[in-house]
Specification:
Length: 89
């Protein structure tokens, strides 16, 4: 078993102390049970993380440009970009 230390807001600590006294269990036991409950609700099953895949990117904007064109434009420095843009009059 690992020993640890936590910080709680005063009101949360007082409420937890009242619950532990009313249940006649130690504060540490109440904390363990609370953590075990939260982990049972939110902890994913071991296989769930392996099944998840990154969502496919959506095409947003840059209509009419190929992936290579977009990459080329993104890699231009500010100076290169200013030289290749048509000047406004």
């Amino acid at each position: 078993m690992t020993r640890t230390q936590i910080q709680l807001p005063d009101d949360v600590y007082e409420r937890a102390r009242k619950v532990s006294r009313s249940r006649e269990i130690s504060f540490a036991e109440l904390a363990r049970r609370g953590l075990e409950y939260i982990l049972s609700v939110y902890d994913p099953e071991p296989g769930e993380l392996q099944d998840w895949e990154l969502p496919r990117p959506r095409r947003l904007g840059w209509v009419g440009l190929s992936d290579a064109d977009i990459k080329e434009q993104a890699q231009l420095t500010a100076t290169e970009a200013s030289l290749t843009r048509p000047r406004r009059r």
